[in-house]
Amino acid sequence: MNLGNEDEACLCPMDLENEDEAIEFLSNVTGFLILGLEEVSELQVSADDKQPCCTSILSGSVYVQELLEGHIVRFQETLGMKKATFRFLCHSL
Fold first, then answer.
1. Integer distance in angstroms from the first to the last C-alpha of the chain?
2. Secondary structure element (H or E) that encloses residue 25, with its range
3. CA distance 34 to 24
4. How far apart are CA 91 and CA 58, in angstroms?
5. Cβ atoms of 66 and 58 closer than 8 Å
6. Could you give the angle at which helices 60-69 and 72-79 cross, rounded to 10 degrees?
7. For 21-25, 47-51, 60-64, 76-80, which range has the lowest pLDDT when averaged over its residues?
8. Angstrom distance (rounded) from CA 81 to CA 87
9. Is 9 helix (H, G, I), strand (E, B) or coil?
10. How far is CA 51 from its chain centroid?
11. HSE-up of residue 6 (Cα within 13 Å, Cβ side)
């Protein structure tokens, strides 16, 4: 059985010569699946251990003023725009 490329044959358990080869093939596939599930499980554990990044007690206009007076990179990472763009929008609206 080929999938698009005639040089690369699809390895299917039914195409194998004997039962031992089929069992070995399925064992290898199962091993890869288990490894993949373990990786996903580890990612989930690390996602559950996240720490909040926005812990400021400030809110509303006081928070925005802190951003405007603070570091330019923090402003851009938080609001996704440059300070000049934000000021332009505030004056335009």
1. 63
2. helix 19-48
3. 15
4. 23
5. yes
6. 140
7. 47-51
8. 10
9. strand
10. 17
11. 0
Helix (H) or strand (E) holding 76: helix 72-79
pLDDT tens for each residue of 32-67: 777 777 777 666 655 556 666 667 788 888 888 888
Q: Output DSSP code: residue 15.
A: G
- The amino acid at residue 90 is C
> Whole-angstrom Cα distance, residue 56 to residue 70?
13
Give Cβ neighbours of residue 57 (< 8 Å, ≥ 6 apart).
none
CB 10 within 8 A of CB 3: yes
Reduced to 3 states, what is the DSSP secondary structure of residue 2? strand
Question: Tokens in use for 79?
Answer: 């609001």
Q: Let me know how long the chain is.
A: 93
Take residue 13 and report the two structure tokens written for it.
Answer: 């358990």
